Amino acid sequence: MIYFEKTTDFQINEPTVVTIGKFDGRHRGHQKLLGTMLDIKKQYGYKTAVFTFSIAPADLVQGKPHTVITTNLERKNNLRKIGIDYLVEYPFTREAAHMPAEEFVRKILVEQMGAKAIVVGTDCGFGYQRSGNAALLERLSSRYGYQLTVIEKEKDQDRDISSTYIREELNQGNIEKANELLGEPYYIHGTVVHGNHIGEPILGFPTANLLPPPEKHLPPFGVYVSQVWIDGSVYGGITNIGRKPTIKSENGIHPIGVETFVFDYSGNLYGKEIEVGLLHFVRPERKMSGLDELKEQITRDKDFGKAFLAAYRKG
């Protein structure tokens, strides 16, 4: 996948099928839209191209950051895995925010991205104050020579599937429901870092530690049954998200971490990129009386996790 980032000066010199959006959480609605693009690619031979912004527009417009289900890195990895050819991660400046909708279509989608087909959802918005929509794309299609496909929203009963809906379920710890809406496990991607080195020598449980970026939207602190992707293989695990209140800190600061005991894995994980997918909420994070109680609780969590995964794989 060819990846353009941090620049407005890019050029795709071959015909494309283009879509636009944040793609925060590759949920079932996104999968439907991206699948349509791949179908058009097969039919016409166009390259697939995704336009998105480096930060969510609301962050700049409203002047405050908000969390995302899928970080920029995770979004890039997702799109590469499914076979997208181009990703444009456009810098969201005030100039970009004030670009008229038709200029956005002409200058960026058609001239710079080579759009011969455009695929969007019914609720798409672009250009200054989101004045551009699917109706405008339809009106401009003959002028700029592209075909338009508009995808209806995927629904969960009577509610549209959206990143907002998924965040609500994550906030309540409803991992199974969030995963149902996503069409895949909610996951955290990162590089394994050194922790406080008490896992294996003191507790007898080697763990893989990730430090999620501050923009990553996390579910409630606690313990989860998980799946872990390492070097193309999938392992079961038990994951703690939180600040590890039982463990003493030299400076009194407990950063938010994602710590996973990976079942049936041997080897050095430090420096490896892994993905931890959450399957089930086990219990809230709580402070134990000491390391002995913590070890006993981890053993119970581990046993529960193995039993859960055995049933999960059969189902």
Strand tally is: 14
Order of helices and strands: EEHEHHEHHEHEEEHHEHEEEEEH
Distance between the termini: 35 Å
Radius of gyration: 22 Å
Could you please describe the fold and organization of this structure?
The chain is of the alpha/beta class and 315 residues long. It has ten helices and 14 strands. It has helices at residues 28-44, 57-62, 72-81, 94-97, 101-112, 134-144, 163-171, 175-182, 199-203, 291-314; strands spanning 2-5, 16-20, 47-53, 86-90, 115-121, 147-151, 155-156, 159-160, 186-191, 208-210, 222-230, 233-242, 257-262, 273-284. The longest helix has 24 residues, at 291-314. The two termini are 35 Å apart.
Mind sketching the topology for me?
Blueprint: E1 2-5, E2 16-20, H1 28-44, E3 47-53, H2 57-62, H3 72-81, E4 86-90, H4 94-97, H5 101-112, E5 115-121, H6 134-144, E6 147-151, E7 155-156, E8 159-160, H7 163-171, H8 175-182, E9 186-191, H9 199-203, E10 208-210, E11 222-230, E12 233-242, E13 257-262, E14 273-284, H10 291-314
Parallel strand pairs: 1-4, 2-3, 2-5, 3-4, 5-6
Antiparallel strand pairs: 7-8, 9-14, 10-13, 11-12, 11-14, 12-13
Helix pairs in contact: 5-6, 7-8
